[in-house]
Specification:
Helix 1 packs across helix 2. This protein folds into 2 domains: about 100 residues, Rna Polymerase Sigma Factor, Chain: A (Orthogonal Bundle), CATH 1.10.1740.10; about 80 residues, Orthogonal Bundle (Arc Repressor Mutant, subunit A), CATH 1.10.10. Helices cover about 75% and strands about 0% of the residues. The protein contains 9 helices and no strands.
Length: about 200
């Protein structure tokens, strides 16, 4: 499949029809617009890279769940997902700003007291990547709860309020998400704690 001979919507339809190879040219065609949009809004290169990657994970999930309706340009739909990720990022940034009131020397002392050796950092990073791969396999509502709880650090009360659901619903979705992740670990024979 040559990227220059297909439109975004043709590539999306090909991907939805099972042609996994259509994803690469689709990303290539849209990557600069999505990254540029995120960079303009965040004004931070590393954040833009991270949010671009998260946006594509969401796009792929939404496509696999058949959430994309071919009613216009694919890029507009993709930019809406990027925009939502940016809003979430600003919310987290605002929440983290509260913690910046800790003195810089106190913060440095806290960090120095918890320095991990290089091997432990690598293991932690590998485990984080494996867990992230499990999280993106979850149904959308369960994934949202896990991200808000364990990546953003929100309490279940805050999640319930922000998502307009009851705290019991938030707790239930988290419980089902954990059960599903355990199933994925068993299914794929993943060893999160290998040496």
């Amino acid at each position: 499949m040559k990227k220059e001979t297909f439109s975004e919507n043709q590539l999306v339809r090909a991907f939805l029809n099972g042609e996994e190879k259509a994803l690469t040219p689709l990303i290539r065609v849209t990557q600069s617009r999505i990254y540029g949009y995120i960079l303009k809004k965040t004004d931070d290169i590393e954040t833009a890279k991270d949010l671009s990657q998260d946006t594509y994970i969401k796009i792929i999930q939404q496509l696999k769940l058949r959430k994309y309706k071919d009613k216009g340009k694919f890029i507009s739909w993709a930019l809406r997902i990027a925009h939502n990720n940016i809003i979430d990022w600003f919310r987290v940034k605002k929440r983290l700003a509260k913690y910046e009131k800790i003195g810089k020397l106190d913060l440095i002392e806290m960090l120095e007291s918890r320095i991990l050796n290089e091997e432990r950092v690598m293991i932690k990073s590998e485990v984080f990547d494996m867990v992230r791969q499990l999280v993106v396999q979850l149904p959308e509502k369960q994934e949202e709860i896990i991200i808000k709880r364990y990546y953003w650090g929100l309490t279940f009360s805050e999640i319930a309020e922000e998502s307009c659901i009851s705290i019991n619903t938030a707790l239930g979705r988290a419980r089902y998400a954990m059960q599903n992740m355990r199933k994925y670990i068993e299914r794929d024979k993943i060893d999160l704690f290998k040496n």
